[in-house]
Amino acid sequence: MEILIYGITNSITLALMAIGFSLTFGISGLPNFAHGAFYLLGGILTWIFIHQLGLPFFFSAILSILVVGVLGFILYWGLMLRLRGLAINEVIATLAAAIVIIEVLRYLGFSGFTYVLPEFVKGSIPIGNVWLDYQRIILVGIGIALIIFLYLFTHRTRIGLAFRAIAQNERTAISLGIDSDWTAALSLAFGSALAVIAGLAILPLGSIDTEMGYDILIYALAVGIVGGLESVPGIVLASFILGFAQILVATFFKAQWLTVITLAAIIFILAIKPSGIFGKYKELEERV
Amino acid sequence: MDRMLDVKNLMVFFENALALNDLSLEVFRGEIVSALGSNSAGKTTLMNTISGLIIDMKVKEERRGGERITLLGEIWFEGEEILNAKPSHRIKKGIALSRERHPVFPDSDVEENLRISTYLRRDADLQKSYDFVYSIFPPLKALRKRKAGFCSGGEQQMVSIGMALMTQPKLLLLDEPLLGLSPAMQGSLIKAIKQIREQGITVLVAEQFARPLLPIIDRGYVIENGMLTLQGTREELKENPEVRSTFMGV
């Protein structure tokens, strides 16, 4: 029972961490290695808004989602614009941006037990013989709501449809008047904002640690690679596979194996199906 | 007659390779004009230059310091010079392209393909446009909930032209619409092109299959190695021995 409940919440947590990264990559082919840094930055900004500027929680949360979203947008126009289509350079540039953000935050000392985000609702309820805190239940709710929201957004709205058009065939989309730079910048902004939303849901479960900036990236990558980047069903499935694998390993072996199993999953999938469970192999020329 | 499109001395270089060489052509309102040419004659480059895809490619290549694309000459559309205009600007002006080999959005259903194509339109009356496309291509109506990737080549070609029509063009550019289609399918597409013109849309079509196309065109150009080698009315082209031997196998 414990394994089932914590497996589910852990899986949704992973899905939340991965969805922004996957969205950006799926739409514009941009690997945003600053994803984890944005997650961390969003959490710390919210903390600053609440504790140093005295703003109410929800206002702080929305403000940091917006700030990081705009940062994602700027990251595209300032840095990625010239690198489009050069995969290695894209990785190096976003990873460099990530290191700058994370290390500056580390230097400023934003780490440790002081830096805790408030839970949405305090307390916990028993499910069977397991005590589950409300935050984890809300987290599951946010995860499900986000996936539904993203589905509706990409199928019903003008910008969402443009996102899917660019993802499917960039040149045809351009020939219909869809601006590929504008969509790519928006997708990076969206992905970054989603990283913050994930942070706001997950971070209250513990205290903020700058190391998370790197961990989140690795988890997002693992989920993306196992499930197939750009595939939402793949992301959900991979989150559940990895989520349960992590809980099982942590329960029956040691918690240290948690990261090992995640990285092992990446290597395993890359060895047998490099495009991921639901991923499709794309010709290089299609991507550029 | 009202001159709609006027291409003057167009030159397109990819690095140092000359793709279009001093090419001039004009299209009058209400015409169907063909640009005939064999493979790699420069037809697609011409279509992409008029639709703006080349300029988009040029901007992106230059940003990352890649291949140099050079464009020289002038393209006039309804009194505006558009050689360096963005593709979106040209669509707003009324130029739409159906690309070679009908690249549609495979994971979207047919209707969503059409809907995506209205991205630049601000009016809400899409139903009228859907009905227009379905009236030109009746088979699409039954297929509207099918993923475009699971449609046949001919059906995808219809979707591709339908998408261009959804932008409400004045000038429709068709890049090899007959390529890879069965003779029967070619026949129904030719009929559709005629119908599109009857609705007041001017058509410029690049093609290598002259035989089915010649009967419906008003005028035509022949392109070889990026150069204009011949131009004339339908009758002149039909009678021309070179056209007959190169494009009709006579």
Short description:
The complex is a heterodimer of chains A (288) and B (250). Chain A is mainly alpha-helical and 288 residues long.
Q: Which SSEs are present, and which pair or pack?
A:
The complex is a heterodimer of chains A (288) and B (250).
Chain A: H1 2-28, H2 35-51, H3 57-80, H4 87-107, E1 124-127, E2 130-133, H5 134-156, H6 158-168, H7 170-175, H8 180-202, H9 212-227, H10 232-252, H11 257-272, H12 284-287
Antiparallel strand pairs in A: 1-2
Helix pairs in contact in A: 1-5, 1-8, 1-9, 1-10, 2-3, 2-4, 2-8, 2-9, 3-8, 5-6, 6-8, 9-10, 9-11, 10-11
Chain B: E1 3-14, E2 17-28, E3 32-36, H1 43-51, H2 53-63, E4 69-77, E5 80-81, H3 87-93, E6 95-98, H4 110-116, H5 126-136, H6 139-142, H7 153-166, E7 171-175, H8 183-198, E8 202-207, H9 210-213, E9 219-224, E10 227-233, H10 234-239, H11 241-247
Parallel strand pairs in B: 3-8, 3-9, 6-7, 7-8
Antiparallel strand pairs in B: 1-2, 1-4, 4-5, 9-10
Q: What does this protein look like?
A:
- The complex is a heterodimer of chains A (288) and B (250).
- Chain A has a two-stranded antiparallel ribbon with strand order 1-2.
- The radius of gyration of chain A is 19 Å and the shape is globular.
- Residues 283-288 of chain A have low confidence and may be disordered.
- Chain A has one domain (13-211, 282-287).
- By secondary structure, chain A is mainly α.
- Chain A has helices at 2-28, 35-51, 57-80, 87-107, 134-156, 158-168, 170-175, 180-202, 212-227, 232-252, 257-272, 284-287, and strands spanning 124-127, 130-133.
- Chain B has 250 residues and is α/β, with parallel strands linked by helices.
- Chain B has a single domain (3-247), classed as Rossmann fold (3-Layer(aba) Sandwich).
- In chain B, α4 runs parallel beside α7 and α5 packs antiparallel against α7 (153-166).
- Chain B is globular.
- The interface between A and B is medium-sized, with 24 and 28 residues.
